[in-house]
Amino acid sequence: MVTLRINGQEYQLEVPHDMPLLWVLRDIVGLTGTKFGCGVALCGACTVHLDGQAIRACITPAANAIGKNLTTIELIGETPIGKKVQQAWLDLEVVQCGYCQSGQIMSAAALLAGNSNPSDADIDAAMSGNICRCGTYQRIRAAIKEAAQIS
Amino acid sequence: MGLEERPHERAIPAVPRRAFLKAGLAFGSGLLLGFSASAPGHGAPMVSNSTPAALAPNAYIRIGRDGQVTLVMPQVEMGQGTYTSISMLIAEELEVRLKQVALQAAPADDRDYRNPLLGLQGTGGSSSVRAMWDPLRRAGAAARLMLITAAAERWHVDPASCRAENAEVVHMPTGQRLSYGALIDLAARLPVPRNVPLKDPKDFRLIGTPAKRVDTPDKVNGKAQFGIDVKIPGMKIATVAACPALGGKLAGVDDSAALAIKGVSQVVRVDDAVAVIAEHMWAALQGLAVLDIDWDEGPNARVSSADILRQMEAASHKSGVVARKEGDLAKAMAGATTRLEAVYQAPFLAHAAMEPMNCTVHVRADGCDVWVGNQVVGRAQATAAEVTGLPRDKVIVYNHLLGGGFGRRLEVDGVTQAVKIAKQVDGPVKVVWTREQDIQHDAYRPYYYDRLVAGLDEQGLPIAWSDRITGSSIMARWYPPGFKYGLDPDAVEGAANPPYGFPNILVEYVRHEQPGMTTGWWRGVGSTHNIFMVESFIDELAAAARRDPVEYRRVLLGRAFDLEAGLDPAATAPWSGPPPDPARVRAVLDLAADEAGWGAALPERRGRGVAVQYAFGTYLAQVAEVSVSKDGEVQVHRVVCAVDCGMIVNPDTVKAQIEGGVIFGLTAALFGEITIRDGRVEQSNFNDYRVLRINEAPTVEVHLIKSSEAPGGIGEVGTVGAAPALTNAIFAATGIRIRRLPVKDQLRSS
User: Fold this and answer.
1) Secondary structure class of B339 (helix, strand, coil)
2) Kind and range of the H or E element at B69?
3) Would you say B461 and B556 are in contact if contact means Cβ atoms under 8 Å apart?
């Protein structure tokens, strides 16, 4: 039994301690906005926030989240920064297939939480772990800058 | 797809109104994207009789008494923006706002939802707007005319005194108005009109304006439902291991350790794979890891890339099937001042869509439900019917958003496998491939080995051109009727019909199937490799003639030769578009060169490269600017594209597709390569099958040319010319000609 606080709600889950959060979220809790892309932290599609830090859910055991706040794409729009990021994504029409975008948005929100005015180099550093196969990178970069300007 | 022949009373697939209303509320936007929101398989079946109260004048449009317009969407959304652009076609002619159109994924139906360009129910070949441009606008116009006629009857006025606007019919002299919903019962009793006039493009109020994509809101908040997100009550999760040696079979498996893992319920054997069925993916993955599998590796267990290459090289010496022959090549070559020869190679490529392959299936005695995101929904249904032995109408396919297609989901191998597994499972099962399975069991873009020869006159202009393409035939496997006289129109696309005229030309195709390799469509299809070969070799000719690459192309484009002289009709792919217009090629070349600052001085080891193409009915030129460090690292700084795709439906989507298409093409050109050793694919995940990342991606500038010509395709064109623009720029920067993709570490010693 693992007790997790996910998007502000407490869950008592019958899962092994070493089960990665990705599968806890998707297959047990039913939050499918967090995506499976590679399984080994190479693509960033599974990015979620653990106490505000962007982490890869595919390699993070459930036990690591005990006693912490886990936030996913489903709730990020309720945070001021997440809301701005989503708005910028809509304004600039960043999305194509959209499969990677949950992870992109979670990485971008974590970046902006710690850096309200990121440079190109900051964006490269924070976002280079998130692959987009549709190649939306320049709009992601522009949307992060726009989100930083939304008051 | 003659709408006119179809009486509206016919039983046609209708959207259960209850379902979309509910879903509309749930989504908040009134838009239903994908089918999953209506809980398919547990509510009303997707195919039902037509609702008497609704107006259903054709396969695409449903209008309810409340005025709700639903488009039964024939094309699938994989990022290319088709849900929006196809909706715009209907909304334009039906005179409703884009937001008033709800979407419903079409059921499997190769007749009503056939793509007329491809000849089956399919989304691919950059064909959606081109294929649906006429039928969808006609569908909207027919419904509009019926509503106008109904209103005129109600008011006892001349229909010509009425017009439709904003989901209402207006009687112009009096200003009376009736909403579409109020006219449905009356309109439904009218015959469906034939020969409906379409709007003059100058009257378009929606087509050509930048519309917000209808699928974006749910893709930024986690609500969008891809195939992999399906949740069916009682559903199990499975993951698979297929025989690592290509074409091998399962000999046996000891599953005792897997079955001992908590959450694992079953291990299922199929002919070439094992699946672990579990409560969740974690248990399935752990179970898979401890299976003791005995493979019968089959005939390809010793195949390697080196063998494949040796065989292709040998095959390329034979003459091939003639795709195009004009003039007297031998004589012209003999009389040439200069003769150039080159061998160009393009590697096997995986698709690596972000959403790994997956398919959810529930097989019962009396039916089969399939939840998937696939580009050929009819084929998905057909394979499920074949595997289960059920009639096709007992197989319901609920198609979902695709987390990338790129041609991978033009295959149904994953559906076939999932149904074979589900037959042995009690209840629904979601089969999810790992990334490693996805990369190692793809339908790969073929390896091509091409020999090019040119003879130049004293001015350095080509008077003779020959191109012999050696590679496997996708068409022969995927669509045998498209493979005629030994000629694969895809394999020679872009080579048999370059936009440059040559007085003497020979283009041949040598079919060479590579042992164990299944080859398939990959974004940009035939053009992607052939434009690399042609535009690189043209660059070589320009260099040999000591002329500027842009100026040299301008000269070639100005030579008045018949661009399709001697072209075998069997060498033209259905999606190729009409013959190229050299003036439009010239216009995109000039615009791209101007915008890129062609000719302006650059620092040492920095260069610009140009590529020009005509593919999918669209003209595109791109200029890449790169630098190459002393130790051979390539950095792409900027890519400038000029595009003429005829009439534009959604300009921002056109730009987005080019931006992304270029990145997709650069990824492949720089890193993309699948290699084989001991019959196995050597790459397995994004560490060794690299994808361009944000810190490596150039800016892509897209300049659109206004045009009133018929629409061209846009989903693949950015990818097509990316490689030659890159490698021509590398040549400009370093003097090194890349003739074999990917670039990878070929510049390391420079």
Assistant:
1) strand
2) strand B69-73
3) yes
Gap between the Cα atoms of B322 and B486, Å rounded: 9
Per DSSP (E only), the strands in B280-349 are 292-296, 321-326, 338-346
Contact (CB<8Å) A139/B659: yes
Nearest to B308 by CA among B677, B669, B742: B677
The predicted pLDDT at position B729 comes to 98
CA distance A114 to A107: 11
List the structure tokens of B649. 């439906």
Which residues does A17 contact at the CB level (< 8 Å), separation at least 6? A2, A61, A62, A63
- Spatial contact of A85 and A109, defined as CB atoms under 8 Å apart: yes
- Please tell me which residue of chain A has the smallest CA distance to B660: A135
C-alpha torsion sign, points B292, B294, B297, B298: negative
Give the pLDDT confidence score for residue B41 in this predicted structure.
31
A91 touching chain B per CB within 8 A = no
Per DSSP, the three-state class of B531 is: helix
Contact B403, B373 (CB under 8 A): yes
Beta bridge partners of B532: none
- Can you tell me which residue has the tokens 């409703």? B96
Which segments in chain A show pLDDT lower than 70?
A: none
Tokens linked to B564: 């399709």
* Backbone φ and ψ of B299, nearest 5°: -75, -10
B652–A98 C-beta distance less than 8 A: no
Give me the helices (H) in B558-637, please.
582-596
Distance CA B648, CA B632 (A): 40
Distance CA A122, CA A30 (A): 33
Hey, how many other C-beta atoms are within 10 angstroms of the C-beta on B5?
Answer: 8
Residues B128, B131, B135, B141, CA torsion sign? positive
Helix (H, G, I), strand (E, B) or coil at B369: strand
Q: In whole angstroms, how large is the CA radius of gyration of chain A?
A: 15
Query: Looking at the predicted complex, does its ipTM rise above 0.85?
Result: yes
Cα B539–B545–B547 angle (5° rounding)? 70
pLDDT value at position B574?
Answer: 87
Inter-CA distances, A61 with A50, B272, B488, Å = 12, 32, 50
Contact B525, B716 (CB under 8 A): yes
Distance of CA B582 to the CA centre of its chain: 26
Report how far residue A131's alpha carbon sits from residue B692's, in angstroms, rounded to the nearest whole number: 8
Nearest to A40 among B685, B693, B697 (CB): B685
| Sheet containing strand A2-6, strands side by side | A9-13, A2-6, A69-71, A47-50, A53-56
> How far apart, in whole angstroms, are the C-alpha atoms of residue B157 and residue B438?
62
Give the span between the Cα atoms of B380 and B384, in whole angstroms: 6
Write the DSSP symbol of residue B226. B
Q: Chain B: give the shortest CA distance to residue A51, in Å.
A: 19
Kindly list the residues from chain B whose CB atom is less than 8 angstroms away from the CB atom of residue A132.
354, 694
Question: B180 phi and psi, to 5 degrees?
Answer: -55, -40
Q: Are B713 and B80 in contact (CB under 8 A)?
A: no
Element (H, E) at B33: none
The first and second tokens of residue B648, run together, are 């534009």
C-alpha–C-alpha distance, residues B369 and B41, integer Å: 7
Sites in chain B below the pLDDT cut of 50: 1-53, 750
Alpha-carbon span B490 to B506, nearest angstrom: 17
Strands B292-296 and B61-63: unpaired
Contact (CB, 8 A) for B452 and B332: no
Using only C-alpha atoms, chain B has a radius of gyration, in whole angstroms, of 27
What are the chain A neighbours of B662 within 8 Å (beta carbons)? 135
pLDDT number for residue B749:
72
CB-count exposure of residue A43 (10 Å: 0-12, 13-18, 19+) = buried
Residues in chain B: 750
- The helix or strand, by DSSP H or E, that contains position B183, with its residue range, turns out to be helix B180-188
- Strands B462-471 and B448-456 turn out to be antiparallel
